[in-house]
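User: Design a sequence. Structure:
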């Protein structure tokens, strides 16, 4: 509980999460404007097209920022040296990792769900401004938001695990961006049998039918959770046995 209290204090006494939320909102806004105002009406008037765009600009971007938030929760401590007093106050390293997992799960779920909900609302407004119909029903929107939230929890945990293993902030953040936004897209296009089981593809399958490898959101969530659990266990082992310099 002391480790969890310390993590809550770190979140409320710094502005990192707020800056991440502001950056996420700005990127989603820009992407929504480009897609729903600039694209020809023929490319944005069908439900499947709107869902695909919202999955890209809402769900995927929310997942990216959830993973970045998770990675910053630990790499920032190594970067600024605060990991030393953290360990002096709480020597149990497993407790530290667990506390960070809990707090970042909440942050990741919130960032991803808000990004999906904001993108959806903005899309409806922009389409209405063009005289076009927002074709998704309440069930589609609910699945997008809830699926993004589930994916956000898992991506935040995965980001925390990667940050714990690598420690260096810059390569972790840059690597996450390159992997989710570029490499996974290349894999889905050039090697779909591999790319469809990438973490981003699995998370997209949770939020939108037909957007990933598996048609069942439960199966997609279970597969992604298995990958994240393996990463977290590796991170815990690494953090427990590696010296803090």
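Assistant: Done.
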């Amino acid at each position: 509980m002391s480790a969890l209290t310390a993590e809550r204090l770190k979140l409320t006494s710094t502005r990192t999460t707020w800056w991440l939320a502001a950056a996420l909102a700005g990127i989603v806004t820009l992407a929504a404007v480009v897609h729903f105002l600039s694209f020809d009406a023929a490319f944005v008037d069908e439900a499947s097209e709107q869902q695909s765009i919202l999955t890209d600009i809402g769900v995927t971007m929310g997942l990216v920022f959830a993973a970045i938030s998770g990675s910053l929760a630990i790499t920032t401590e190594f970067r600024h040296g605060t990991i030393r007093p953290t360990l002096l106050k709480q020597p149990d390293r497993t407790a530290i990792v667990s506390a960070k997992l809990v707090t970042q799960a909440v942050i990741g779920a919130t960032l991803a769900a808000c990004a999906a909900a904001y993108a959806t609302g903005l899309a409806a407004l922009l389409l209405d401004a063009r005289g076009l119909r927002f074709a998704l029903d309440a069930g589609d929107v609910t699945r997008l938001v809830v699926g993004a939230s589930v994916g956000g929890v898992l991506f935040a945990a995965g980001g925390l695990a990667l940050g714990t293993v690598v420690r260096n902030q810059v390569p972790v953040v840059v690597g996450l961006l390159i992997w989710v936004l570029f490499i996974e897209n290349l894999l889905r296009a050039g090697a779909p049998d591999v790319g469809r089981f990438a973490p981003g593809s699995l998370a997209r399958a949770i939020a939108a039918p037909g957007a990933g490898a598996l048609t069942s959101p439960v199966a997609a969530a279970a597969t992604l959770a298995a990958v994240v659990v393996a990463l977290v266990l590796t991170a815990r082992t690494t953090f427990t046995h590696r010296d803090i310099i």
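The longest helix spans residues 93-129. The chain has a mean pLDDT of 87.
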